[in-house]
Amino acid sequence: MAYVTYLNAIGAVALVKAPASRVADFVALLKPRVMTLVVFSGAVGLFVAPGSLHPLLAVVAILCIGVGSGAAGAVNMWYERDIDALMTRTANRPLPAGRVVPSDALGFAVTLALLSVVLMSLTTNLVAGALLAIAILFYVFIYTVWLKRRTPQNIVIGGAAGAFPPMIGWAAVTGDVTLIPIALFAIIFLWTPPHFWALALYRSGDYARAGVPMMPVVAGRVSTKRQMLIYTLALLPVSLTPYFLGGTGLLYAAGATVLGLAFIASAVRVICEPDAAKDQAARAMFKFSLLYLFLIFAFLLVDQLLGIGG
Fold this sequence. Notes:
Structural class: mainly alpha
Shape: globular
CATH class of the largest domain: Mainly Alpha
Radius of gyration: 20 Å
Low-confidence stretches: 1-18
Strand content: under 5%
Number of strands: 0
Mean pLDDT: 91
């Protein structure tokens, strides 16, 4: 208990006393670009859930999802600061660049994680708070500590952590989890491997230098590309599950179908791309994957707003 109190004090003091430049570094620890999609998917899960939540409580719930995600990301940066220093993509992050002291980063992250879970539990319900805690702990201990440096399946299993937000948003309203939020979880779960493996293809040198067993480094490029296609093929029918469960209408079904076919096509282009192209198709697929996930949840949101029946 004393140790937790100490960490809480470090996190609070570090942020309060930090000048503007250091505040930006602490914000960077939260992985704000990743947080954007997390918050959006969590907000959509909250909005499409049956029932209602007071607008202020809804804002607090979404804030807790974002802060919890950011806290998990900050712990990830703290734990991986050694390998981040070896990779071009991450060498300028606040910790490997020496702009934030590791103990400050850890205290900041633990404080935010505890606050997000406690606030979610008190303002919505214990189910939502428990799911948020599980998501944070899964990302930190299962993905970051256990899987990341040990197996090329790290992102397959560890990707479950990023799939929790729609379920958390849903549970914040209903206090339970049904098949529809589980389907939304499955969409993100299946989306994660091809998304990250596309990045790993054109950043494989970074991962190799850092000793991270990402799929292209361990299994090879050809095997990775084939598995990316398999996941995009599996994702298409799973993305239509919310429609077949009666949770969405035709607008979502049509949008998910078009997006799914486009995602499959991008995976096919990656397979067919010659080595001389220097992973241009993989870069394009990585960018499209971000758009894909945003649009899937955007279609779900618009479908609900318009009330288009199935």
